[in-house]
Amino acid sequence: MSTDCLFCRIVERSVPSTVVHETDDVLAFRDINPQADTHVLVIPKEHYPDAASMAAADPKLAGEVLATAGEVAKIEGVDSSGYRLVFNTGPDAQQTVFHVHCHVLGGRSFTWPPG
Ligand code: 5GP
Ligand code: ZN
């Protein structure tokens, strides 16, 4: 737990969020500023700054984050229509919260390549 990390505070419930799904190790909650009808963030409860550091330290946990993203897509009803998973990493990707999070975006179509 990092006391100055917003998403660690969401895990410990000292900052409120709308939880969509939870396992022992992973939490999924709605983004406060949704960019699509479905916009859920899936995070490990343990603090890692980004996806690569999580996967290097704990590949099983990284797999659980991805599996939970798939569960969220089913819960949200976007698994058959399609959805986008995004891990913004570092300044060029506009990462703003340095606790790894997988954006699950769905409910509309997306352009490729991204802007
Ligand atoms: P990033 O830009 O780091 O990939 O994404 C961070 C995401 O966290 C943004 O989409 C932003 O809207 C979301 N966010 C920032 N603060 C909060 C908050 O307090 N609660 C929730 N639920 N989402 C937040
Ligand atoms: Zn954290």
Condensed summary:
This is HIT family hydrolase, diadenosine tetraphosphate hydrolase. This protein has 115 residues and is an alpha+beta fold.
Please outline the helices and strands:
Layout: H1 6-11, E1 19-22, E2 26-30, E3 38-44, H2 51-57, H3 59-76, E4 83-86, E5 102-106
Antiparallel strand pairs: 1-2, 2-3, 3-5, 4-5
Helix pairs in contact: 2-3
Structure description:
With 115 residues, the protein is of the alpha+beta class. The protein has one domain (6-106): HIT-like (HIT family, subunit A), CATH 3.30.428. It has helices spanning 6-11, 51-57, 59-76, and strands at residues 19-22, 26-30, 38-44, 83-86, 102-106. A five-stranded antiparallel sheet has the order 1-2-3-5-4, covered by helices on one side. Zinc ion (ZN) binds at residues 2, 5, 7-8, 47, 99.
Summary tags:
5 strands, 5-stranded antiparallel sheet, globular, alpha+beta, 115 residues, HIT-like_sf, 27% helix, binds guanosine-5'-monophosphate, HIT family hydrolase, diadenosine tetraphosphate hydrolase, HIT family, subunit A, binds zinc ion, Histidine_triad_HIT
